[in-house]
Amino acid sequence: MLTNQAGIELIKEFEGLRLRAYLCPAGVPTIGYGTTVYPTGRKVQMGEQITAEQAEEYLRSDLRAFERNAESMLRVSVNENQFAALVSFSYNVGSQALQRSTMLRFINDNRFADAAGEFARWNMAAGKPLAGLTRRRAAERELFLKPVAIQPLPDVGDFPPMQPVAAIHTDKPMAPIVAALLPSLISAIPEVAKLFGSGPKTDKTAAIAQKVAETVIAATGTPNLQAAVETVQADPQMRKQATEAVQAIWYELQEIGGGIGAAREFSVRAAAESAPFYKMPAFWISLALLPLLYGTVYAVLTGAEGFTNELRAAIASSVVTGVLGAVAGFWLGSSFTTSRSRGLGATPTTE
């Protein structure tokens, strides 16, 4: 997760910009917005100068380490403002201070109001409160408590109908960044919510969410999911582009986790591409079931000593009925799905 612009502006305001190297209160050569080591790994030396653009670049490079550390400490989802406030806090006092803080413990216990109250405690230097630190902690607390604004979005068109596969909350954990930003992504592309119904919990949900996130990132050409969500929220054209990309993999998402429904959809695509029957998954699935059918019937009729003829006949009949029923159901289901995809919504339409 990356620090949002509100967090970056807060850090820049309180760190201040110095284009010539200086000694910080700890006696360490510092430059820009608090940079002590350049992105190349070389330490800042006294007498060096940089431009404002370089200072911005060095700040963003410095923030990556604090972002990774903060993300690794969190066991719950936080919004972008809460995350930015924590990064600003640790950029000032250090990641180790955040790690051992009561604030972090409250956050991981979902006690966010109590966590917000902890900011004010970190305003001391050399045993005395400092006005600058007091103002910074107040600003970080305000950002931490500020809700993330969700912009209203226009209609983005229809998606093909699909059976919901799972609720958003599952027993299998998603990546923290995906879990944190999934509600914003659904708000930006509302039809994505159709993927997450109110059905039973399943491990497929996390995989589907990850696939949707990767698709939107690729469609928007952004480096990560946070940037992708911000882009589709701000740019209607990019939102349309991301929507179309998700539409393009709609049936692929249904296949995640396998199952007969996925196999049917796979056969539909093969049929749509005019593939020979022997290249269709349905043909090979049916063929694979036949040895099971013949082998079981043969074993029951010839090798089941002690079975009466009536019992043998009943077992053989049940096996034949079950296997042939599965094959017939698969083919009929494939035929129905083919008809649906060709005439009942496989191609999204807009009003």
Q: How are the SSEs ordered, and which strands pair?
A:
Blueprint lengths: L4 H11 L2 E6 L5 E4 L19 H22 L6 H14 L1 H5 L2 H7 L3 H5 L7 E2 L2 E2 L1 H15 L30 H13 L15 H17 L4 H10 L1 H13 L1 H6 L4 H13 L8 H23 L5 H35 L8
Antiparallel strand pairs: 1-2, 3-4
Helix pairs in contact: 1-3, 1-7, 2-3, 3-7, 8-10, 9-10, 9-11, 10-11, 13-15, 14-15
Describe the fold and architecture:
With 351 residues, the chain is mainly alpha-helical. It folds into three domains: 5-145, Lysozyme, CATH 1.10.530.40; 176-255, no CATH class; 277-343. 60% of the residues lie in helices and 4% in strands. The chain has helices at 5-15, 52-73, 80-93, 95-99, 102-108, 112-116, 131-145, 176-188, 204-220, 225-234, 236-248, 250-255, 260-272, 281-303, 309-343, and strands spanning 18-23, 29-32, 124-125, 128-129. The strands form two sheets. The protein has a two-stranded antiparallel sheet. A two-stranded antiparallel sheet has the order 3-4. A hairpin with a 2-residue loop joins strand 3 and strand 4. Helix 1 (5-15) runs parallel beside helix 3 (80-93), helix 9 crosses helix 10 and helix 14 runs antiparallel to helix 15 (309-343). The model is unreliable at 162-172 and 336-351 (pLDDT under 50).
